[in-house]
Design goal:
Layout lengths: L1 E4 L3 E3 L12 E6 L11 H10 L3 E4 L4 E4 L4 E6 L10
Antiparallel strand pairs: 1-6, 2-5, 3-6, 4-5
Length: 85
C-alpha cells in the first residue's frame, strides 16, 4: 500500500522515530520524474532536491516540495517476505 502526502513542507522525523507497522520506504515523484525508494525520509528528501522535486534546507532539515511534487510512503517489500528457514 502506498500513501500520498501533499503537504508543502516536510520535516525530518524526530530521532528514534519508528513506525509500528515495520520498515517504511519513501520517495518523491514529479510529473516528469519518479525517485527511487529510500529507507529514510531524510535521504529521500536530499535525493528529491537533486532531481528537482523541491528544496532541501540543510540547516533546518526541512524540505520544501515544488508544486505537483508528491511524497509516497510504503511498507518495505521485505516486511512481507516469508522468513528464511
Amino acid at each position: 500500500m502506498i500513501f500520498q502526502c501533499d503537504q508543502g513542507l516536510i520535516r525530518e522525523p524526530q530521532a528514534g522515530f519508528r513506525h509500528l507497522s515495520g520498515t517504511m520506504q519513501y520517495r518523491f515523484i514529479t510529473p516528469n520524474r519518479i525517485g527511487k525508494w529510500y529507507p529514510e525520509l531524510k535521504l529521500a528528501m536530499k535525493q528529491a532536491a537533486a532531481i528537482g522535486a523541491g528544496y532541501y534546507d540543510k540547516a533546518s532539515g526541512q524540505f520544501f516540495k515544488y508544486r505537483d511534487t508528491q511524497l509516497q510512503v510504503r511498507n518495505s517489500p521485505d516486511d512481507d517476505a516469508p522468513l528464511a528457514a
